[in-house]
């Protein structure tokens, strides 16, 4: 193996661009070969150069081949636009090879008119596709429909009959609607008062030092917050006086 010139640019290799299994196999064989060689002060530089050259050869042999994938059409492209493009290109070639001035001018005008139609078709196709995309991502407000049904009595909605608490069934849409509203959203008497003595007791536990230290350690190290103090300051304060 020849010695590399100091002026030869070195190619950069990345593992993700290599066939990793084949690369590891060839590398293992090369390392086992160099392991049996005796290294001395007078041949160490030559061995290193040979190892580098062998490593580059392995990389070149195991590089992944790039698979060319044909350019796909735009999402707004259609067969109608394809045929229109072929027609416009044919009209352009026809007027360009015409030698008679008057006939060339007539064909050029006709070509430009068809080309303008083609550009307008592309613009409309892009707009329609974009509107379809917006329709697909807009979140529909279903709550507004329910609100309209409740407030507007002229809107008729088919609701099934419901069994009330007294065992009887509702007989009309208005009765079913009112029963659903009162059952799910019961009214509260204005004289109703909350008795704090009836609320369950909640025991407040003190924070342990280890818990506080774990929280500060887990905080992100970055720009200061809205109080203009960074996490490093909080750590310093905590370590100065943990109590």
Explained architecture:
The protein is mainly α and 243 residues long. 54% of the residues lie in helices and 0% in strands. The chain contains eight helices and no strands. It is flat and about 95 Å long. The two termini are 70 Å apart. This is Reverse transcriptase domain-containing protein.
Write the layout of secondary structure elements.
Layout (H helix, E strand, L loop, with lengths): L19 H16 L8 H18 L17 H18 L4 H37 L4 H10 L21 H12 L24 H10 L12 H10 L3
Helix pairs in contact: 1-2, 3-4
What's the helical proportion of residues?
A: 40-55%
Task: Please tally the helical runs, counting DSSP H or I stretches of 4 or more residues.
Answer: 8
* Helix-strand pattern: HHHHHHHH
Q: Per the principal axes of the C-alpha atoms, what is the gross shape?
A: flat
Through-space gap between termini: 70 Å
Protein name: Reverse transcriptase domain-containing protein
Organism: Araneus ventricosus (Orbweaver spider)
In short:
This is Reverse transcriptase domain-containing protein. This protein is mainly α and 243 residues long.
Question: Could you name the key traits of this structure?
Answer:
single chain, 243 residues, mainly alpha, 8 helices, 0% strand, flat
């Amino acid at each position: 193996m020849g010695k590399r010139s100091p002026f030869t640019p070195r190619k950069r290799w990345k593992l993700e661009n290599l066939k990793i299994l084949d690369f590891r196999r060839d590398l293992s064989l090369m390392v086992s070969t160099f392991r049996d060689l005796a290294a001395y002060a007078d041949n160490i530089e030559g061995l290193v150069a040979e190892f580098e050259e062998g490593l580059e050869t392995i990389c070149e042999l195991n590089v992944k081949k790039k698979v060319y994938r044909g350019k796909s059409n735009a999402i707004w492209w259609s067969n109608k636009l394809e045929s229109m493009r072929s027609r416009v290109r044919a009209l352009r070639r026809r007027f360009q090879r015409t030698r008679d001035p008057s006939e060339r001018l007539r064909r050029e005008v006709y070509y430009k008119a068809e080309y303008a139609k083609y550009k307008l078709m592309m613009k409309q196709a892009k707009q329609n596709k974009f509107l379809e995309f917006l329709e697909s991502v807009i979140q529909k407000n279903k709550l507004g429909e329910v609100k309209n049904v409740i407030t507007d009595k002229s809107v008729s909605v088919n609701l099934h009959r419901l069994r009330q608490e007294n065992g009887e069934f509702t007989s009309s849409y208005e009765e079913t609607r009112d029963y659903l509203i009162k059952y799910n959203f019961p009214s509260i008497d204005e004289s109703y008062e909350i008795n704090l003595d009836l609320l369950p007791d909640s025991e407040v536990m003190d924070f342990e030092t280890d818990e506080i230290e774990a929280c500060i350690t887990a905080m992100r190290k970055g720009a200061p917050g809205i109080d203009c103090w960074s996490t490093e300051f909080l750590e310093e304060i905590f370590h100065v006086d943990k109590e």
